Amino acid sequence: MAATKTTVSDYSDWTVTMDWNDGSHNFKATSGMGMPFLYFTKKSTDIAQVKVKNGTVTVSGEMLVITNLSNGADFAVYAPTGSTWSQNGNVYTSDLNGRDYWSLAFIPLTVSDVNATATEYKKYAYVFPVKTTATYTYNETTAVMRTDFNVQTEVKEGSETKMLLGLLPHQWAHLAADSPVPDKYSYAIVRGEMKTLAGNSFSVENTFHGILPTLPYVDNYSIGFNPTALNEKITSLENTSLATWTDSYNEGQVMNQLIQTARIADEMGNTTSRNKILSTIKTRLQNWFKAEGGEVAFLFYYSSTWSALIGYPAGYGQDGSLNDHHFHWGYFIHAAAFVAQYEPGWAAQWGEMVNLLVRDAACADRNDAMFPYLRNFNPYAGHSFADGFANNPQGNNQESSSESMVFASSLIHWGQLTANKAIRDLGIYLYTTEQTGIEEYYMDTKHRNFPASQQYSLVSRVWGNSQDNGTFWTADIAASYGIELYPIHGGSLYLGQDTVYVKKLWNEMEANTGILSNQANPNLWHDIYWQYLAFIDPAKAIGMYNSYPERELKFGVSDAQTYHWLYAMNALGRVDASVTADYPIAAAFIQGETITYVAQNYSDAEITVTFSTGYQLIVPARKMVTSKDS
């Protein structure tokens, strides 16, 4: 075969079929995440050929067993029943007994009898995947997100109908009670232990603990809080102008800085500052959402070539490489939710542009004519990827998992505000699934996935075939910590659920950075560190904040938001991960034995939010309240 390129002839949620064709010969290979097999087909007149460069080959009827091919890895090749293999040096050929299919399996490294396991695997060799789908359903009452993974198959021969599926740690650790359970061999992979089951489906359930637009204004319950100081920090930003030229990512960061500040102003009753910032954000968003003749900045363009919405000015490869769309649009959708919250009717006029941003980064319709299904999110990997072309030898990558959670949070807010449950539930699906991916692959909170060589308690980049603590602008470990936390907002509560891990990571951050000495370092984002510390020790965080008033703020950070966050957490205690609610914009905190319940009502009518403890919180229209207000 002399094919000059590889094309994709088919794909589904976690499989892809690669196609080689030189006009005379045709070869296809189907690969799926978590699948120990590769599945091959050929043109009916072609001869199957296997070239073995290393290792030892044993021919057993229609099966080739190849041991110690590379680094101790063993494989088995399965031709159709009745086939024979001919050897010429290290090349093995077969006409496949007149058929057009065969497969290859990677034998687990831990088995003691390779030939026996290869024979055991043979029954799965002829069950080919045709289509894979991950379908999600949210139960509002229980706050449980269920994802059903299903494989449609074609049985090429034999009586076996089940495939061999490999489950990743974020899947097998959260299986639904009625799901099949992996009970076959395990594989040590880059993400930890992959456990296999014989079957064509399994189900995962994750619990959603809620998000908030910001922390409630309970700061006055905290000793040392000064409302005048907070108000001054807010007013210092109320007249901020957005840049006359910037890129879509940095624009989003500044909008987030202002939005966080305005929300606090509203909670304090400072509607003057809120409205000034609201006007600034609304004017700029409407500029982005409306393209006019001759305009060269702050506009969107739809590329039919790439099935993508491009924002100009772009930045960070958002246009040329289709990078980071979920990062950029998460800030924009948050901004739109902010405007829609405080200006009823705005979403009716501008909401379709916001929905286009949602569809661009995470279209939920597999048949959408304009956008691909879940562009940035990988339904099987359990997290998003950011590189549009994935043309690095290490595969695709994602650096800032926390900004991916900004995107998921933005969908929840926007969907709830606009009464669009499809978008809201999509956001909850992304949020709950990515949270498990973060906990397993970025933070390894259960200590079961990182290799022994991993020096730190988190990684800042997850690649297709590896992970590391680098960033795309510096090797400073201070940035590695910060980029997995930034920005802190009302959707960051997932970071505070596992306080044992928070304490472990904080101790490491103290030891490996200059946070205790108030080191001036552009890669050390003091405000973000302090807000993270507030999940376990807000009093200490307040002391550190007060000790360094002359610090240089990270771009996109609001001093008002830091001050509010620290004092609010000091009054609330810790995130209570044992409590859920039947409404998504709600959360619970615990201090001692006292639980504080919080909810934000975006609607025009009073609602009652019921928490899993049985507590009911009555929330007036368009208000955030807490049980402390009762």
Offer a few descriptive terms.
single chain, alpha+beta, eight-stranded antiparallel sheet, 14 helices, 30 strands
Q: Give Rg in angstroms.
A: 27 Å
The outline comes out as elongated
SSE class: alpha+beta
Number of strands: 30
Report helical residue fraction: 25-40%
Fraction of residues in β-strands:
15-25%
Q: Would you identify the regions where 5 or more consecutive residues have pLDDT less than 50?
A: none
The strands making up the biggest β-sheet line up spatially as 1-2-3-4-11-8-7-6
Number of helices: 14
Q: Mind explaining what this structure looks like?
A:
This protein is of the alpha+beta class and 630 residues long. 30% of the residues lie in helices and 25% in strands. It has 14 helices and 30 strands. Strands 1-2-3-4-11-8-7-6 form an eight-stranded antiparallel β-sheet. A hairpin with a 3-residue loop joins strand 1 and strand 2 (15-21). The longest helix has 22 residues, at 421-442. It is elongated, with a radius of gyration of 27 Å. The model has no long low-confidence stretch (mean pLDDT 97).
